[in-house]
Amino acid sequence: MIWKTSINKMTGTKYPLIMAAFAGLGRTEFASSFSNAGGLGIITGLNYKIGNFKSELIKMRELTDKPFGVNFTVLPPGVREFDPLSNISKEDYLKYLEIAIDDGVEVFTTSAYQANHLGERIKEAGCYWFHKCALLRHAITAERAGADAVTLIGMESSGFKNPFQHTTLINITLAKRLLKTPLIAAGGIGDARGFLGALGMGAEGVCLGSAILTTKESPASQERKEGWLESDVLSEEYHKQLYHRELKGTRVLSVATAHQKKSISIHEFIEGMMVEASEILISWGFKEDQFTILPE
Fold first, then answer.
1. What is the SS3 assignment for 285?
2. Which residue in 41, 56, 61 sits closest to 96, CA to CA?
3. What confidence score (pLDDT) does residue 60 get?
4. What are phi and psi of 52, to 5 degrees?
5. What's the CA gap between 91 and 81, in Å, rounded?
6. What parts of the chain have a pLDDT lower than 70?
7. Domain spanning 2-293, CATH architecture
8. How many other CB atoms are there within 10 angstroms of residue 24's CB atom?
9. pTM for the full model?
10. Between the N and C ends of the chain, which has fewer C-beta atoms within 10 Å?
11. What's the confidence (pLDDT) of residue 170?
């Protein structure tokens, strides 16, 4: 089945799937595998010293002839004063951005804090800017700033939680009413039904993170992959951490890992998910060979 939404119209990918940034794990080998499988692979710019960044972009193009993007995780204001190990300024971000623009990268994702200074330059260069956030009010701010798409992260996701964060279902269904900007759903999605459910809520794409951390191409250690595969997201301890926020500032594993039972390749994972999604639509009576969500 052919998939057409505003998201993969902008990205130029086969599927409306975006790879999460993954901080230190968002590197060329992992990202290129995601791109080769039909999604938008993402490399995290600040994983590299600025002198090595250009060579990594060249390496990415050697590993894939498919579209890919670059992520910038924006540090909070004043972090340089409080964390001597974080020496990234607004000017430094812009240097990385210019290198990527000159290389021909067309899609950029930003996350964490406001990225208007990057978004303005991205838009000026004729590229696409996707901003990721956890709260609806931040999504509205990103739309006002000119983001071409907004990724909303539900509390089912991995990582640290915002105390005002909602579930993916609430995030996307409410955002669909409040925003005109295309939405990308993130948080707890790891199979075909989750993908279709996100589209039904109003998203036009899905961001995959924890669901692909156990794949063969993931740079995570084998020990960690096995731990994730054996994790029990239905346990009382996990439930307390995720929904009761019992442990303040604790990183919580995404429920998306519950969908994976063994380590497979990214291509096998994505292709399997999208084929199953097509089969589900057909079982529901969908008779077309193309699934389209595009503005009229």
1. coil
2. 56
3. 97
4. -100, -10
5. 16
6. 76-90, 158-163, 238-253, 258, 296
7. Alpha-Beta Barrel (3.20)
8. 10
9. 0.91
10. C
11. 93
